[in-house]
């Protein structure tokens, strides 16, 4: 079973965007990560290889793995593994300090390793927190949400305390890696399957926030690595998807506009004409 794709994830019937569960079993082939809207923290022992945002990391012993849903990842287990995992939404940690702890933690940045190697003492401490969360999660305690958030915050703060210094990336390597993550995140939004599920990330600022970097740094990196501004990549991909939807679906122009993140059809009409030189309806009727 893959710790990042086939394990349980929160649903509308779960406890408000949070789940904690034990991990055990034999090794299986690597699989890509699944749902993209849940953060995941895994306490696990065993031999495995983690592919995370272009990094290939061989692991053994006890490790704490902190997975950002916006960074592509997959794991391949080579031996039996044992431990715990929890998945949670960003809204579960509602509150200014906890949200900042999550969003600005270098443990969840694209340029930091998601893995912490644990000593026996650290493993025991983390295991105790996961066991406490598991016990509270399955109980009828009236204030269990507060206690679960407290335990999760302790895990994050302890992880921050014991993490090694982040390696300093060269400007070229950092820009290349950030650009690849940007392009991966952009491409994973397509193709659009339903007009009721609009794009989550449409602007450079959206992508910068998702990758926990300043928008100016993202723009510089993308331009340096590809020769094209971030805005041009976005315009090209959104326009290509718009053409495909206009030519190969029976969705209304309004539905297509909404699916691509435009608040009003007129905004989409003007955008499409400015980029392509013709209107959405002209493309659809004349097969331009």
UniProtKB/TrEMBL annotation:
rRNA-binding: is it a keyword of this entry? no
- Stored SUPFAM superfamilies: Homeodomain-like, Regulatory protein AraC
- Output this protein's name: AraC family transcriptional regulator
Q: Which GO terms describe its molecular function?
A: DNA-binding transcription factor activity; sequence-specific DNA binding
- Keyword Transcription regulation attached: yes
Protein's organism: Siphonobacter curvatus
Tell me which SMART domains the record gives. HTH_ARAC (SM00342)
Instruction: Spell out the Pfam families in the cross-references.
Output: HTH_18
Its keywords, alphabetically, are: DNA-binding, Transcription, Transcription regulation
